[in-house]
Design goal:
- This protein is mainly beta and 414 residues long.
- It has helices at residues 148-154, 189-192, 263-270, 362-365; strands at residues 3-4, 12-14, 28-29, 42-43, 52-57, 62-70, 73-76, 91-95, 106-115, 127-131, 144-145, 160-165, 180-187, 206-209, 226-231, 234-243, 254-258, 301-309, 317-322, 328-334, 337-338, 342-346, 372-375, 382-387, 392-398, 404-413.
Length: 414
């Protein structure tokens, strides 16, 4: 799913396992454990990826990748901008660094954020960050962006591309201190949309890269980072890390924003011709004048996490404040060992159909929304789908009667 650590409206995953806290989106990264990572790759030679940027919270915590596309401009993913105020984003970027723990490179505050407001359908997952000052670090350099003529002349099925970042090294794994990279082949959208892969989900403004057998990919925390064509010391960015089903799984290629197909919007945002904005919807919203283009009421959230539990530990629960207008909530688990079940319940529901004399008005009762769901299959293949959930606080609980480990937990709401 989205290759970022997501920070959502009111999400709290109380766990003994790593948890995702997110704001309505699909996953590879923002503030918590869910940063997209490079899987199956190697550490980059220091400063050989001078265009690479780390998008960070104001305290210096990495949550997404990015690329230097101008002396004071960073290209990243729209889903990294959830909850961001476009006019006064409380964030910074670090450029010119190889390690994120040794203080190297240059940290610069972000002055404005421009987020593609068509992002919620995932097909235009790009954003531009305007920095408060020009980059001066000698190890930081601007990368060239691909246009369609460059792609047509240089990119075909199997062409090697390089993706880099500080994302986790395996799905749900640890993030590295130093920049990692991996080479993955370009995959046509026809192959990426095959029934065994993404079944038509990949759009014309997206592109794919990876191996049919899996094993190498970008991952959580790599979101927003660059997918690059390189030849004879020339670097050209062709993609932006966006999403994928897990990381490096068989038939689940990495999906990237197609830079050439999105150049018109990217160029416009780089020139300051787009309204300052954060991610459409969510608790943070744009906050900026003119930042809402009409899709601001749409809420979109998704993430995946590898979970484990032992009897006697604190029960794993996700507490979610569901706003009005959400169309569907999808919750599922699969794989791993042991046995897990799922329940979803809206908390603090009022018994609004009880008469003063204590008898229910059964005519109204049959029209009331269902506020409790459960999936209790044997094993870990569990799924709950809640259509048009009632607004309010929902508690998603994972059973505590048996041990389970390395179970893939997927949550999606739109």
């Amino acid at each position: 799913m989205l290759k970022k650590s997501i920070l959502t409206t009111a999400i709290l995953f109380s766990v003994s396992a790593t948890a995702a806290q997110t704001e309505f989106t699909k996953i590879k990264s923002i503030n918590v454990s869910e940063s997209t990572r490079i899987v199956g790759g190697t550490e980059s030679t220091p400063h050989t990826r001078p265009y690479q940027a780390s998008v960070q919270s104001s305290d210096g915590s990495h949550f997404c990748g990015g690329s230097i596309v101008g002396q004071d401009l960073i290209l990243t993913a729209a889903h990294c901008m959830e909850g961001v105020n476009g006019d006064s984003p409380d964030m910074q970027v670090r450029v010119g660094a190889h390690s994120l723990t040794d203080g190297s490179g240059e940290a610069i505050k972000v002055a404005k954020a421009y987020t593609n407001q068509e992002y919620p359908n995932l097909s235009k997952d790009v954003a531009i960050l305007k920095l408060e000052k020009a980059i001066s670090d000698p190890n930081a350099k601007v990368i060239q962006l691909a246009d369609q003529s460059f792609v047509d002349a240089n990119i075909s099925a199997g062409t090697d591309l390089v993706v880099s970042g500080w994302g986790t090294l395996s799905y749900g794994g640890q993030a590295p201190e130093k920049l990692m990279e991996v080479t993955v082949p370009f995959v046509t959208n026809e192959v990426c949309n095959s029934s065994e892969a993404y079944g038509g989900q990949v759009q014309d403004t997206e592109m794919c890269a990876g191996f049919k057998e899996g094993g190498k990919d970008s991952c959580q925390g790599d979101s927003g980072g660059p997918l690059v064509f390189q030849r004879d010391g020339e670097f050209v960015q062709v993609g932006v890390v966006s999403w994928g089903d897990g990381c490096a799984a068989e038939n689940k290629y990495g999906v990237y924003g197609d830079v050439a197909k999105l150049r018109t919007w990217i160029d416009s945002a780089m020139a300051g011709n787009e309204p300052a904005s954060g991610m459409a919807g969510g608790s943070g919203g744009d906050g900026g004048d003119g930042g809402d283009t009409g899709s601001g009421e749409e809420t979109y959230l998704a993430f995946q996490e590898s979970i484990s539990y032992s009897v006697g530990e604190e029960k794993l629960e996700l507490v979610l404040d569901v706003p009005e207008g959400v169309n569907v909530i999808y919750i599922a688990t699969r794989g791993g060992e042991g046995d897990v079940d799922i329940t979803a319940e809206r908390s603090e529901t009022d018994d609004q159909y009880a008469d003063d004399d204590g008898f229910d008005d059964w005519g109204d009762f049959w029209d009331t929304p269902v506020n409790f769901y459960s999936s209790e299959n044997m094993g870990n293949e569990e799924m709950i789908v809640i259509e048009r959930p009632e607004a309010g606080e929902w508690v998603i609980s994972l059973s505590d009667f048996a041990d389970y480990s390395n179970v893939e937990f997927t949550f999606y709401a739109h």
